[in-house]
Amino acid sequence: MTTYYKFKPTAGYSLAITDDMTGAKLPPVQYGRWVFEEKVDLSPGDGRRIGPDADEVIKGVLAEGYYLWSNKA
Question: What is the spatial distance between Cα 11 and Cα 72, in angstroms, rounded to a whole number?
């Protein structure tokens, strides 16, 4: 299991997961800034969902350094 860090912007609907607790790997947001929300423990193949599937999130973090998605309903 690996610990990741979930961030949300001060304005907007995006959420981000990264393996960097500082959020330095996250792309800039158009308005505001990223703020830490919570720690998230994920393992490949565990079937856990935090919105997107854990395997999808882990793959994105390994490839880009972060994974973004919208929480707008």
Answer: 12
For residue 18, the tally of other CB atoms under 10 A from its CB is 23
d(CA 55, CA 57): 5
The helix (run of H) or strand (run of E) holding residue 44 is: none
| Tens digit of each residue's pLDDT (9 = 90 or more) over 1-56 | 899 999 999 998 899 999 999 999 999 998 899 999 999 999 888 777 778 889 99
In sign, the C-alpha dihedral spanning 11, 70, 58, 1 is: positive
d(CA 69, CA 14): 6
pTM of the model as a whole = 0.89
d(CA 58, CA 1): 11
